[in-house]
Specification:
- The structure is a single chain.
- The protein is globular.
- By secondary structure, it is α+β, with helices and mostly antiparallel strands.
- It has one domain.
- Strand 1 and strand 2 form a beta hairpin.
- The N and C termini lie far apart (about 35 Å).
- The protein contains 8 helices and 11 strands.
- The longest helix is centred in the middle third of the chain and has 14 residues.
- Helices cover about 20% and strands about 20% of the residues.
Length: about 260
């Protein structure tokens, strides 16, 4: 069933609550603290102990073919490995979603529709109960937009920290985990490629253009461009996309508990 029909089953209570505090220097992999260590320790481990950074693994399942009624295994790229868990990002853009549902300026990750969608519909649809238990809830720290300080006047905290199982990268992580523009270029699965077209871009969770007066532009959120770039060439501002009214690819990110 297409996502537009399935989305009606999303339940708001599934969305994990936000919490305060943030990281001083933006997002780092070590900032993803496990919220419930007892639950993590008792959860089953997935058999990915031998996976290394850069490897591709299969975990969970989601619609992949155009007009799909059956799900297929999701391929993930390993970004980080530490403390019996791995950080992974979907190899392909798995869906095509809005970041927010209205034109509210400066929508942050904590309030975004995309966060709700990932932690409710996608989480329930893509993973079995056993797989869900192997995905820890982690603290997703807020990003300090140091590079926008010249425009804003001081370092700006982009919303409150959250507790999530599924999220998307921020601008800093997209630089950290991908060593070139080419490596950041995303392909869409046939399930959503008819929406994304030939030049898909994918969402990050870093706000953009916070200092501008244009109410439409201020609804923008950072994305990776169709050619893998993070910055506009003409003024070196963050590459961004209107968070409402148009969509971008979603490349979910999550931690998985491993045996070793």
């Amino acid at each position: 069933m297409r996502k537009v029909l399935a989305a009606v089953i999303m339940i708001a209570t599934v969305l994990l609550t936000g919490c305060s505090a943030g990281a001083e220097n933006g997002f780092r992999a070590e900032d993803y603290q496990i919220v419930d260590r007892k639950a993590f320790d008792s959860a089953p481990a997935m058999d990915f102990g031998d996976a290394e950074v850069g490897d591709t693994i299969a975990f969970g399942s989601y619609f992949q073919q155009e007009y799909a009624y059956e799900k297929e295994p999701i391929e993930w790229t390993v970004l980080e490995k530490k403390d019996n868990r791995i950080l992974v990002i979907s190899r392909y853009g798995l869906d095509y979603q809005q970041y927010c549902e209205d034109y509210t300026p400066n929508i942050f990750w904590e309030e975004s529709y995309l966060r709700f969608w990932l932690n409710s519909y996608f989480f329930e649809e893509a993973f079995t109960p056993e797989e869900q238990s192997a995905i820890p809830t982690v603290k997703v720290s807020t990003e300090i937009l140091v590079d926008q300080a010249d425009h804003i006047g001081s370092e700006f905290k982009a919303g409150e920290s959250t507790e999530d199982k599924v999220f998307v990268l921020n601008r800093e992580e997209a630089e950290k985990y991908f060593d070139s523009d080419e490596s950041r270029i995303a392909e869409a699965t046939p399930y959503c490629s008819w929406d994304a077209g030939l030049r898909p871009r994918w969402w990050l969770r870093t706000p953009a253009n916070l200092w501008l007066d244009d109410p439409i532009v201020k609804t923008n959120t950072s994305t990776v461009s169709y050619d893998g770039k993070l910055y506009e060439e003409y003024d070196e501002s963050l590459y961004s996309h209107q968070a409402n009214g148009t969509c971008a690819l979603v490349r979910p990110v999550l931690w998985i508990k491993t045996g070793q």
